[in-house]
Amino acid sequence: MATTDKASTRDRLLDAAAQLFYRDGVSIGIEALCRTAGVSKRSMYQLFDSKDEMLAASLERRIPRYEAQFAPADPDSATPRERILYVFEQVEKAAADPGYLGCPYLAVLVELKDPEHPASQVARAVKEGLREIFRTQAEKGGARDPELLARQLMLIFDGAGVRAGARVEHLDDGLATTTVTALLDAAGVE
């Protein structure tokens, strides 16, 4: 039974961390995290050595859901171009949600500014994974320079997310997909 209680406590802490770090930033205090999770600080420190470790674990836990939102239902039937555009269609949909604040992984990288921080390492790996997906699809789609196109797509992905999350840009008019379509055309992606 103790294992179930620990898993439940751990899950509550990671859920609270994901919510608060995304909404309020990584500077949120331990007291607020524990209060939101309904967990004592003692219990938190029994599960995690530090807030930094909890932040990294929270980000790792979100990876499958984060990656799944950008994968088409039937990826084998989609062309590389369609797979790339699908990612940006999902960003446009997500940005319409009033609670959207941009990419949680980019937010962590920007806030922490420390490449050695455990959460920065998780976030960087996720962002590099997305860049690699773009590069692979660009190569399969016949892009003249898949690496350059992947970097350009990341700029659009991150820029669109940040601007929409800060409420200085709206993506409901297809701005991201229109921009990506132009890039794909220019790069020769089919």
Automatic annotation (TrEMBL):
Alphabetized InterPro entries for the sequence: Homeodomain-like_sf, HTH_TetR, Tet_transcr_reg_TetR-rel_C_sf
Residues annotated to bind DNA: 29-48
Keyword Transcription regulation attributed: yes
A Gene Ontology molecular function term of the record: DNA binding
Domain HTH tetR-type, first and last residues per copy: 7-66
Keyword entries, A-Z: DNA-binding, Transcription, Transcription regulation
Name by which UniProt lists this protein: AcrR family transcriptional regulator
Source species of the chain: Streptomyces griseochromogenes
Lineage: Bacteria, Bacillati, Actinomycetota, Actinomycetes, Kitasatosporales
